[in-house]
Amino acid sequence: MSDSQPLFSMDDPAFVERILKARARRLAASRDQHAQVEHGETMLCFRVGGERYALPLDSLAEVATLGMVTPVPGQPRDLLGVTNLRGEIRPVLNLHQLLGLAEPGEDGRRFAVYLRGPSRAIGLGVDEMRRIRAIDPQSLTYPAQSGNGLPQRFIRGIGPDTLIVLDPQQILALDVLRDRRADYRIRQ
Amino acid sequence: MDSAQFAPWKRMKLRRKFIVVATMFTVVLAGLIAYTASAVNQQKDKFFISDLAGRQRMLAQKYTQEVLLAAQGQATDHAGTMAQMRESLVVLENGGAALVGGEGGLRVLIGATEDGEFRAKLGEQGNLLRQLESEAGRYLAMAANDGRRVEKMRELLALQGQLTKQADLSVKVLVREVERHINLTVTILTMLGIGAALGGMGISWIIGREIVDPLASCAYAALEIAKGNLRLEPQKITSADEIGQLQESFNEMLTSLREIALQSRSVCESLTIAASQILSSTQSQAAGTKQQAAAVQEITTTVEQINLSSKQVAERSRQVAGTADAVAQSGHAGLQAVHETTIGMEAIREQTENVAENIITLSERTQAVGEIIATVNEIAEQSNLVALNAAIEAADARESGRRFSVVAGEIKNLADQAKEATSQVRGILEQTQKGINTSVMLTEEALKRVEVGRERTNLSEQVIRQMSDNIQESVHAFQQIVGATNQQQIGLEQVTQALHEIRQASQQTAQTTAQLERSSMELTALGQQLAKTLEKYRL
Fold it and tell me: How far is the alpha carbon of A147 from chain B, nearest alpha carbon, in Å?
């Protein structure tokens, strides 16, 4: 859902014409242009608590809307709970908690980004899906070098226009996932 | 005046006092006259006595002569003479009737003498008389040739001389006595006269003191009053007679004069003040008259202007009456129009209700569209997710999935566009919903306004009807105004005429006021003069 837009009127022919022209330009654009643009590492951009974050497409299993999440008793707040996706129970981590952001309200639709884990996909609750971008790793700045005071464990780097690229390995390395997890079930 | 506080003499009237005094004087005078008469009467007796006594001498001489004559032989009545002498002597001595003045004289009564000396003389005379008679008898008895006769005659003559002398002496005594008596009488009369004069002087002094002094006092007071001195002591009332009345009247006159002077002075002051007030008011009246004349002039001009404007008013009133008539007709038309407006309002209300229903329907449809749009949005998002998953799968396929990733990007773009379009449609729908809501409110407002308009129209109908009636009344009123204005013009002409007369009158008033001013100046001068005159009175 877009932000509150300025008032407009469909009766305004200039506005309608502007929209139609923008659409025509987009449709008229060749695929090579997209290919040219997308060099570097492709990443999925999403929004958590008003901040924009990104994850490399290579580390992702899939994205889906986040249905009902069942909290798991006795687990820290980093684990939002478990959800059922096409008959498969998957854990969903609370990115707000991990990144030290304010908890979102109950209303509104939420999405889940599933990381490709060693044995199964791990869900991350996000607020909004954005788009897929190609980001040059050279353009990233690293928090360890800049020292800007962010929780730096999960951050791989910060791209231009303050896009924060998360580190999926660090997320997968969380203790809450590691503890008594699928190894036990796989052995059975 | 209380007359009881005075003595009886003081109480008596002046006339009576004068009568009393005159009576007293008359009585005194009568006494004097009576006394003088009695004294003179006594002198008459003495005169007769002295005459009788003198006669004795003459009779003695006559007797001697008769005797001598008788001796010569002639017949004489010497005895009668002797008797006459004796009778006279007796009368002289003891009183009685005697013949006075010879034979033809009158007989008078003579009182007996009381004088001793005279009586002695008379006694001697009687003795001599008797001697003379006896001698005469002897002489006569002698013869004519007797020598002794001469002797005897000489004796007789001597005796007769003696007798005459004696008679003379008695007469002298009598005369002396008479003289003494007369002297006494004169003395008494003189004394009485002096006493009467003194008494008269005393009475005159008393009367003068009683009458003249008050009169002089009154005269002095009158003179002082004439000089203007009113600070006099009141006259002391000394009696109850006319003088007293005069004094009392004088006091009353003084009191009343004082009061009159006081009143005159105050009146004079009031008169002076009033005169000056009259003068000032006359001057202000003169000024006022001038202002009045000017005002009358202005009023005349104004009235003429009013006359002009009233003509205009009449003209305008006629016009307005015509206009009002037209307005009354317009009012009827207005009533008709209002009626039509009411009908139109009703139609508007019905249409507005229809519009409201339509709007509600439109709102419902818009909601349905919104739901559809939500569904489309959902589909777009799902498509987006599908595209993202496709991209992820393509990334997972590496090089073999490269073309697929392009398709996934396209799908993603389409999903994005669809999402953007649904977002725009949603915005438009929201706008539409807002517009519909506004329209609903506006429609309700319009319904209310229509209701209000209907009420207003009803009110307007009443007002216009009332206005029409009023205008009808106004037409009548304007017709009356036209009539009244005509009358007003006539009245204004009369007013103009009257104003001209007023102007003439005010000019006359100005002249009269000037005269009045002069007169009041004279009056002021007179008042001051009067004040000066009254200052003469010392109160």
Answer: 32
pLDDT at B221: 85
User: Are the Cβ atoms of B391 and A9 closer than 8 angstroms?
Assistant: no
A132 CB near a chain B CB, below 8 Å? yes
Task: Kindly list the residues from chain A whose CB atom is less than 8 angstroms away from the CB atom of residue B416.
Answer: 131
Q: In what order do the strands lie in the sheet with A79-85?
A: A60-65, A111-115, A122-126, A88-93, A79-85, A69-70
Residue A63 inside a domain? The answer is yes
- Is the predicted pLDDT of residue A1 greater than 50, yes or no? no
- Cβ–Cβ gap B391/A44 under 8 Å: yes
Q: Point out the residue among A9, A23, A63 whose CB comes nearest to the CB of B417.
A: A23
CATH of the domain at A93: 2.40.50.180
Question: Looking at residue A30, what is its pLDDT?
Answer: 61
Task: List, as own/partner pairs, every contact residues B378-381 make where C-beta atoms lie below 8 angstroms and the sequence separation is at least 24, other chains included.
Answer: B379/B418, B380/B415, B380/B418, B380/B419, B380/B422, B381/A65, B381/A109, B381/B415, B381/B419
Residue B233 falls inside a structural domain? no
Q: B448 in a domain, yes or no?
A: yes
Q: Are residues B216 and B266 in the same domain?
A: no
Domain count, chain A: 1
Alpha-carbon distance B396 to nearest alpha carbon in chain A (angstroms):
6
Task: Supply the pLDDT for residue A181.
Answer: 46
Torsion (CA) B95, B100, B102, B103 in degrees, nearest 10: -80
What type of residue is B191? M
Range of the domain at A112: 39-187
Q: What is the mean pLDDT of residues B470-492?
A: 82
Position B102 scores a pLDDT of 57
From the CA of A148, how many Å to the nearest CA of chain B? 31
CA atoms within 13 A on the CB side of B332: 6
Mutate to test the interface with B, among A30, A132, A133, A135 (most CBs of B within 10 A): A132
Q: Is residue A3 domain-resident?
A: no
Q: Is A131 on the interface with B (CB under 8 A)?
A: yes
Q: Is the predicted pLDDT of residue A188 greater than 50, yes or no?
A: no
Whole-angstrom Cα distance, residue B75 to residue B57? Answer: 22
pLDDT in tens, B3-51: 567 777 777 788 888 888 889 888 988 988 898 888 888 777 777 777 8
User: Is the ipTM beyond the 0.90 threshold?
Assistant: no
Q: Is A7 on the interface with B (CB under 8 A)?
A: yes
| Contact call for A2 and B431, based on CB within 8 A | no
- Whether residues B178 and B298 share a domain: the answer is no
Give residue-wise pLDDT tens across range B385-412. 888 888 888 888 878 887 888 888 888 8
Tell whether B331 and B388 lie within a shared domain. yes
Q: Tens of pLDDT along B232-259?
A: 888 888 778 888 888 888 888 888 888 8
> Given CB atoms, is A57 within the 8 Å cutoff of chain B?
yes
